[in-house]
């Protein structure tokens, strides 16, 4: 019986079909689940430190004028050429983008993809590589759009017809000439961007639910059960895995990674509110923080957070009720602020900028957590139409040393980073903004709500 099972397994593995002309996998859905037993790491070197973020301190809600404008130091604007992963860099933080600043529309593409208007796809992965845009549609079709030719130059759908009506949530990352794709069906595969061929493909059985990171030949990602995987980027095989606590109530918050490439540390914040620091070279856990109350039972309180960001040794976590700063090496708390962040923070040389749900834009000192200034984003807006129609924020970036806040309705508000005063307000897209806003080669890009790509100089 064992011999029959062995023969069956060998036949099954060797029966994968390829297209001899293009090298692309004919039927990705026939790929077997990967049942290999990888190395597993465990949390056996230290006790979990609980950080109770559910204490009912008074939520910050006041405007503060700056005392000294010359103390605020931020990074020199950076000219970005490629955008190879979600949030652009391993740390999830670019402090200051360089942009020509003219806000003149140069081009608008035809409709590049189709997404259901009833679902939120504004956070979908969009990458830029060698003057090409790389993204996907809700059916899972990967496409490449040439910015110089203003047209699609490649399309490929990995999925079999019986998955046609299932909307795909895909995460992407590019390393050199290889695109890695993970989805909500449990598939992970790699695509050569030079010859447009599939290199390898795996089915891990459980939907992936995280951004992707890549370092030292390893792809890092997590599934919906909060299991962290290290995947060999060359073969797609598991190097090791690490199971963390599950949560059974799903929210919009997904497992999130950030990487410190200097110290070889991977930071993993899961949907249960646990933050792990793991050395990805020796697979040892440095420390663990738990942002759920130690007395909490089950899912009585949902854990919500924005993506974690790191600047040098400063790790910023923004939960539903707190803004917290930790030493990335030791996990010692620097400071915390009782507030309700509404977006991923921006961390600069000496200061951190955060938008709160009560419409406050605040500037904090990195060293102390003291609030340098705090302004309601609508206080200095004279145009009543802008105030009325701005509505929900879709993106928030520091550009040419000014704070730019973008709305889904297509409006832009700009603020002086030294004092929070308004410097510009207006509408830049009549069809709204339906994606993250990107700054590359000193141009500005985003998708409007018709899924057309707009380019500004």
What can be said about this structure in brief?
By secondary structure, the protein is mainly beta. The chain has helices at residues 2-14, 384-389; strands at 39-40, 49-50, 105-111, 127-129, 132-136, 141-146, 151-157, 170-175, 178-183, 187-192, 197-203, 213-215, 218-222, 227-232, 238-243, 256-260, 265-269, 274-279, 284-290, 309-311, 314-318, 322-327, 333-338, 346-347, 351-355, 360-365, 371-376, 393-399, 402-407, 411-416, 422-427, 438-440, 443-447, 452-456.
Detailed description of the structure:
There is one protein chain. With 457 residues, this protein is mostly beta strands. It has a domain at 36-113 and 121-348: YVTN repeat-like/Quinoprotein amine dehydrogenase (Methylamine Dehydrogenase, Chain H, 7 Propeller). The protein contains two helices and 34 strands. Strands 1-15-14-13-12 form a five-stranded mixed β-sheet, with no helix packed on it. A hairpin with a 4-residue loop joins strand 16 and strand 17. The longest helix is centred in the N-terminal third of the chain and has 13 residues, at 2-14. The chain is globular, with a radius of gyration of 23 Å. The relative contact order is 0.16.
């Amino acid at each position: 019986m064992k011999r029959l099972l062995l023969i069956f397994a060998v036949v099954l593995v060797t029966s994968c079909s390829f297209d001899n002309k293009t090298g692309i996998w004919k039927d990705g859905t026939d790929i077997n689940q990967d049942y290999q037993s990888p190395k597993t790491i465990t949390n056996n070197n230290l006790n979990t430190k609980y950080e109770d973020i559910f204490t009912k301190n008074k939520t910050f809600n006041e405007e503060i004028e700056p005392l000294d404008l010359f103390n605020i130091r931020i990074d020199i604007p950076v000219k970005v050429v490629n955008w190879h992963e979600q949030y652009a860099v391993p740390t999830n933080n670019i402090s200051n983008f360089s942009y020509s600043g003219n806000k003149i529309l140069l081009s608008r593409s035809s409709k590049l993809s189709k997404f259901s208007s009833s679902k939120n796809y504004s956070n979908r992965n969009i990458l830029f590589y060698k003057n090409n845009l790389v993204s996907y549609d809700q059916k899972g079709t990967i496409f490449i759009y040439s910015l110089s030719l203003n047209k699609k130059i490649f399309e490929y759908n990995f999925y079999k017809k019986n998955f046609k009506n299932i909307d795909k949530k895909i995460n992407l990352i590019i390393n050199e000439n290889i695109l890695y794709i993970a989805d909500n069906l449990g598939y992970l595969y790699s695509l050569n961007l030079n010859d447009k061929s599939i290199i390898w493909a795996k089915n891990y059985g459980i939907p992936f639910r995280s951004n992707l990171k890549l370092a030292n030949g390893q792809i890092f990602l997590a599934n919906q059960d909060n299991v962290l995987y290290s995947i060999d980027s060359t073969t797609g095989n598991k190097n090791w895995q690490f199971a963390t606590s599950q949560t059974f109530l799903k929210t919009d918050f997904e497992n999130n990674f950030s990487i410190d490439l200097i110290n070889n540390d991977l930071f993993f914040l899961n949907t249960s509110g646990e933050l792990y620091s793991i050395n990805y070279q020796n697979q040892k856990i440095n420390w663990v923080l738990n942002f759920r109350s130690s007395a909490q039972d089950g899912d009585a309180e949902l854990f919500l957070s924005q993506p974690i960001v790191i600047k040098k040794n400063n790790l910023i976590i923004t939960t539903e009720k707190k803004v917290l700063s930790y030493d990335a090496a030791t996990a010692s708390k620097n400071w915390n602020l009782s507030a309700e962040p509404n977006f991923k923070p921006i961390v600069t040389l000496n200061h951190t900028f955060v938008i709160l749900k009560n419409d406050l834009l605040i500037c904090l000192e990195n060293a102390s957590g003291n609030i340098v200034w705090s302004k309601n984003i609508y206080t200095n807006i004279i145009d009543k139409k802008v105030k009325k129609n701005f509505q929900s924020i879709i993106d928030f970036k520091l550009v040419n040393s000014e704070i730019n806040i973008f709305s889904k309705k297509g409006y832009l508000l700009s603020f002086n980073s030294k004092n929070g005063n308004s410097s510009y307000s207006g509408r830049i897209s009549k069809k709204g903004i339906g994606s993250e806003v990107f700054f590359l080669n000193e141009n500005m890009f985003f998708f409007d709500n018709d899924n057309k790509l707009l380019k500004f100089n």
